Amino acid sequence: MSKLQLTLACGDYDFLRxxxxxxxxxxxxxxxxxxxxxPERHGRMLRHEEFDICELSLVxxxxxxxxxxxxxxxxxxxxxxxxxxxxxxxxxxxxERPSDLNGRKVALDTLQNSAGLWMRGILQDHYGVDLKxxxxxxxxxxxxxxxxxxxxxxxxxxxxxxxxxxxxxxELEAALYPETLPSIxxxxxxxxxxxxxxxxxxxxxxxxxxxxxxxxxVVIKNAVLESHPWAAISLLRAFQRAKEICYARNSDxxxxxxxxxxxxxxxxxxxxxxxxxxxxxxxxxxxLEAVIRYExxxxxxxxxxxxxxxFFPPSLQTIQQYV
Length: 323
Description:
By secondary structure, this protein is α/β, with parallel strands linked by helices. The protein is 33% helix and 18% strand. The chain has helices at residues 17-20, 38-48, 58-66, 114-126, 163-168, 182-185, 198-207, 222-227, 231-250, 261-272, 285-297; strands spanning 4-10, 29-35, 53-57, 71-80, 87-90, 105-108, 135-138, 153-156, 174-176, 191-193, 214-221.
């Protein structure tokens, strides 16, 4: 019997590589895997629904779901990242602490970007930043058009300009950007990180009621799920098995070109436990509730779904096993 032929678009991550190189095959499925950068992948799925299965921006998924998209998610979260080290200030403009962002002009990629949403939520919930007081400057158009909350003062960067140069030229005072800005990479003295020790700030945030922020989930077209509902469990198990293979390989220091990798792995286990990237609902419920709240408050979604509603129901079931 022939296998189901499906295309998966995803990032080239170590715990997806067993799926990418074919070492792991979902039961009953023959995967054609396309690896590409997040902006391209998200834009192509959100605007045109090009792929059968896609690693997709969690925030973008919630926006598209609110508007009636034709795909559903499974509780797989292949990309997470702390974001304190992506918060940038212009030096010499009086910003010394996060609350000094109040009343300032702050750059974003888009409102819909998962990194930006998490950064705004973190600043609001943990650092006394009043989002209503800020003038938000977005670099790109939104993948899915929507009307932000009326209290959000949103501006669009003019064609031909970019937020990094605007920051250097004094037109903006800070940035919450999903990747390290060129000016920071180049060590330009006109800019600096908002948090002087971002790693410690991220650890403190996590230990004091914060989250390991979820950037992406995995979605499957409804046409696939309606015709082959078993595919959701098959894919979920394959993603989980690929991650387990990655963890096993990462336990060997020979796998890394890093001198102190064992110290880093030990520190990670002490903070997060054995699995910092859990693929299930319950371990991620509070983080999902936070994302839903942030998006609803900022006008990105019209209704606040329960976390369970975000996922294809069979993918949330506990599979019974004999003792």
